[in-house]
Amino acid sequence: MADTTFTDAERRAMSTALALATMPGVPLGPNPRVGCVLLDDDGAIVAEGHHRGAGTAHAEADALARAGDQARGTTAVVTLEPCNHTGRTGPCAQALVDAGVRRVVFAQPDPNPLATGGTETLRAAGVEVVGGLLHDEARAVNRAWTFAVEHGRPFVTWKFATTLDGRSAAADGTSRWVSGAAARRDTHRLRAECDVMLVGTNTVEVDDPALTVRDIDDEPFPHQPLRAVMGERDLDPGRRIFDPALSLGAESVHLRTRDPRAALAELFARGRQHVFLEGGPTLAAAFLTAGLVDEVVAYVSPMLLGAGQAAVADLGITTIADALRPTVTDVTVLDAPGEPPNVRLTMTPTTSKGA
């Protein structure tokens, strides 16, 4: 039986609102990306709005400002439950009440304890409120933000490149290039979607990475993640990760801990929501055994080494029955002229622990 909770016009408007939320140039954090569409009684669009980043008008306020007096009596279709919080901007729930909005349809409930309560404020003022329209699509728009708010730590993506026999470097230590050119460009695209690049001290000492976003079509990319290294040993301040001339605007931090949970807590306190783990096998094993990997991205290259550094260090697994078996969510073949294709596997571990 068809769900009559929402009208066809509201369904179309929510799709539009999601598109507004993800318009080019809208930052991935630290605020959620939100879109809003105001509809009249006939289902026609009165105004549209979207949030453009921290300190700017929220999507509802943006749409209300564009609508002016025409907002009265409309239905507001919003990708996230209107906030009930006064920060750098006022509470959206009260703004909708003051504008005379008749009905509010939202996709995702606001998980932020500081901002929740918008539904109650609206209903207390006599506004009809219905939630859940395109809920899953709205959560996907703010995947890392939602996870970080709900679990009190950043979402962690572990990325690695490997040969067919599971090697990330040859016996002599060489690792350039295990992955192909197309895979490397894809890696930089994924880096740009995170707000922290994290490696261990050994990676900094041996590989001396810059950990910046490069090699993508719209270079220089406007967003550079925080470049973080974790570990207790002192490092040469001349390493590339600490060189402001190579940073392309990225900041650097040395987290003086070997504990993955403590590192994530410090990054969360800095307002970071999505960690891209690109360290070596030891760091990867530490996060995996702690249950702190939420997504795995593996680039598999069609080559065999037979010896060399494994992609991940000892996980304490001694029998096949105890093997970690992540769920594959995507398989993509990456081609570049003049070289064999790489395969990107995106997976969800079964051992992830939210808190």
TrEMBL record:
Q: Which cofactor does it need?
A: Zn(2+)
Give the enzyme's EC designation.
Answer: 3.5.4.26, 1.1.1.193
Please list the residue ranges annotated as the CMP/dCMP-type deaminase domain. 8-130
- Catalytic site: 60 (proton donor)
What does the Swiss-Prot or TrEMBL cofactor note state? Binds 1 zinc ion.
Reactions catalysed according to its record: 2,5-diamino-6-hydroxy-4-(5-phosphoribosylamino)-pyrimidine + H2O + H(+) = 5-amino-6-(5-phospho-D-ribosylamino)uracil + NH4(+); 5-amino-6-(5-phospho-D-ribitylamino)uracil + NADP(+) = 5-amino-6-(5-phospho-D-ribosylamino)uracil + NADPH + H(+)
- One Gene Ontology MF term: zinc ion binding
Q: Which residues bind NADP(+)?
A: 161, 177, 207, 280-286
Q: Which InterPro entries match?
A: APOBEC/CMP_deaminase_Zn-bd, CMP_dCMP_dom, Cytidine_deaminase-like, DHFR-like_dom_sf, Eubact_RibD, RibDG_C, Riboflavin_Biosynth_HTPR
Q: Does the keyword Secreted apply?
A: no
For biological process, the GO terms are: riboflavin biosynthetic process
Stored Pfam families:
dCMP_cyt_deam_1, RibD_C
Which pathway does it take part in?
Cofactor biosynthesis; riboflavin biosynthesis; 5-amino-6-(D-ribitylamino)uracil from GTP: step 3/4; Cofactor biosynthesis; riboflavin biosynthesis; 5-amino-6-(D-ribitylamino)uracil from GTP: step 2/4
Q: Which residues bind substrate?
A: 175, 191, 203, 211, 214, 278
Please tell me where Zn(2+) binds in this chain. Answer: 58, 83, 92
List UniProt keywords, sorted A-Z: Hydrolase, Metal-binding, Multifunctional enzyme, NADP, Oxidoreductase, Riboflavin biosynthesis, Zinc
The highest taxon in the source lineage is Bacteria
* Described purpose of this protein according to its UniProt entry: Converts 2,5-diamino-6-(ribosylamino)-4(3h)-pyrimidinone 5'-phosphate into 5-amino-6-(ribosylamino)-2,4(1h,3h)-pyrimidinedione 5'-phosphate.
What's this protein's family per the entry? In the C-terminal section; belongs to the HTP reductase family.
Protein's name in the database: Riboflavin biosynthesis protein RibD
Gene source species? Nocardioides ginsengisegetis
